[in-house]
Write a structure and sequence with these properties.
The protein is mostly helical. It has one domain. It has nine helices and no strands. Helix 3 packs parallel to helix 7 and helix 4 packs parallel to helix 8. The longest helix is centred in the last third of the chain and has 20 residues.
Length: about 170
């Protein structure tokens, strides 16, 4: 089971609103007041809200996983602030996106696991698959140079359907 939302020493994960593009150009001095983890948790909230919408109405567990992966990689790929910070100030952001990213990843994994459970996937299997997919999204975000063209939605779906969750994987447990 995934850990419940908890208050971070760096800020709250509740009631967050998305960051604006302005922060990408504001420099580190303007962002320091936010606390190092708060922006990550704010954006995790935005991610979860979007993922919720993307998964609405999907009744097949494998399709749900493929869609979650594809949508998640596209969201991260197209996120202007995230990409600007990774390019311009990686030293500022990388600790929050690696060492301290657990609460943000757990938030996405809890959502995905809950959706899988509603589709009658074994709870333990749902947790494993959700964790795997969320970590795969994050890996492709932090290390985008892979064999699949991340800018091509059809290629992402093929990759997810053949490598991440192939037909041979028993998603129900």
């Amino acid at each position: 089971m995934f850990p419940q939302n908890r208050r971070s020493p760096h800020g709250s994960s509740n009631g967050c609103t998305p960051l604006t593009r302005v922060l990408a150009d504001a420099g580190p001095r303007a962002r320091r007041g936010l606390g190092p983890l708060q922006p990550v948790l704010r954006e995790a909230t935005t991610f979860v809200q979007g993922l919720t919408g993307a998964l609405e109405g999907i009744a097949n567990p494998r399709d749900l996983l493929v869609t979650a992966f594809t949508w998640g990689v596209e969201w991260c790929r197209d996120h202007e602030l995230l990409n600007a910070l990774l390019e311009k100030e990686p030293d500022l952001l990388l600790p929050q996106l690696t060492i301290d990213v657990g609460p943000a990843l757990s938030q996405g994994a809890r959502l995905l696991s809950g959706r899988l459970r509603r589709l009658e996937v074994d709870p333990e299997r749902a947790d494993e698959l959700a964790d795997w997919v969320v970590r795969a999204i994050w890996s492709h975000t932090l290390t985008p140079r892979v064999l699949v063209d991340l800018s091509d939605p059809a290629a992402l779906r093929r990759y997810a359907g053949t490598v991440l969750v192939p037909e041979s994987v028993d998603v129900r447990g």
